[in-house]
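Hello again, I could really use a second opinion on something today. I've been staring at a protein lately and its backbone has me curious. Please have a think about how the structure follows from the sequence. I owe you a coffee for this, so here goes:
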Amino acid sequence: MLLGYILANLLGFFFALALLTLPQSPRVTKEESRQKTSKGRLRYVLTHGCSCFYDSAILLSFSTQVASIVMLSRLDFGVSASGMGDGTAKITWAVSLLTLFPLLYVAYLPHLLPSLEELGQVPNEEQAKQRLRFGLFSLCWLLSMYPFYSKMVGYFGPSLIGNGPDRVVSDDDWNVIQGMCTANVRSISSPETVVMQLFGVAGSLFVCFCALLKIIWLGLQRQHGNSRLVQWIRAHHVSLGPRTSVAFVVVLPILAISQIWTILRLRRFQVDVSHSTGNRDSDDQWTFGQIVAITVFVPVLVEFGFRWVAWKHEIKCF
């Protein structure tokens, strides 16, 4: 069930690291074309592959956010809790966040994609194209606000377990239930719970900070493009650009690994509880959605092959 989300984050990290390592040129120069340099060909293939990957990652993230909203809202508003235990809700929170990380690479590092001039489009439309890409990311981010809200309520909201008048289950009854279900199971310890909560909240806040920062910046550029403040930010952004790129390549994998570990640990606990109670866990079976989550990235491989073969044709066009 996790393979598609891991693949999305691995591909995002791979494209970002590879394209940041190669010389950053908006398009292959004529000299590189005549020499048919391996770096020029590799960058040509990677930039077009990254563009195709972003489209696939947007589709995966959008569908995941919609599915998360439907599942969590049914649980939060008491419509139905069928198949949505505490562990499944936490996995849903982690998956919703995990699908946003690959989008941040392209949304904030637009030079990873081929320029519109290279694609044969009007160069002065490049800013509009970049805003469209960021708009798609913003749509997925806005949809993720409900899973984030559900997560914060689940972590820090009032509990239904306790001895108070508004509690549903008493502490004694809950201890009996836990003892029956987790007698021979390694439970999730308090430090593990703290780590899950810490990285879950930190990852969501990081995404929110990046999205809001970019929205404010786009607003300043649109309304006050010639102001001293915008000119000062542009000047300092140029000097801080490489550091920002490195920060994304370092921070995002750490946050992604934390969410992957959270999902794997919760799934391990769920499987152990199922076996301890004599039940059979069916969530690890391959279903329609899990197959789609992987095959959605097949066009990236097709784009790789096509651009690798099309390189010689592009050379002749110079």
